[in-house]
Amino acid sequence: MSGLTLDTGALIALERGNRFVAALLQRAIAAKADIALPTTVIAQAMRDPAKQVALNLLIRASATSIAELDRPTAVAVGRILAVSRTSDITDAHVALTATTRNHTIVTSDPEDLAALAPNCELIEV
Asked: Where does the pLDDT of residue 2 fall: very low under 50, low under 70, confident under 90, or very high at 90 and above?
């Protein structure tokens, strides 16, 4: 496993105590795999930082890297949206992050992400 990129649904599942997602993350950490969190995903999932303990722990974990939405990334996300004729910035950011890192995508939305990142493996939660 080279790494995992999580979408918002995966983070929500983690916050709700989903054991599958927790076990998947534990295996990734044990394998020293990169866990990528696009900033757009964090923005969608973060509602009450004081209460979202699992999310905050994941964000601060040494295995976690934060995929920023800087100007070059924003342009690349826009191109993905244009080519796919879709409009979900977060899904496109997840797809770009996973594709450029050769990651598996952990998602609650496999159909949309399969269309945006056809070469990435998907794990549905």
From this structure: confident
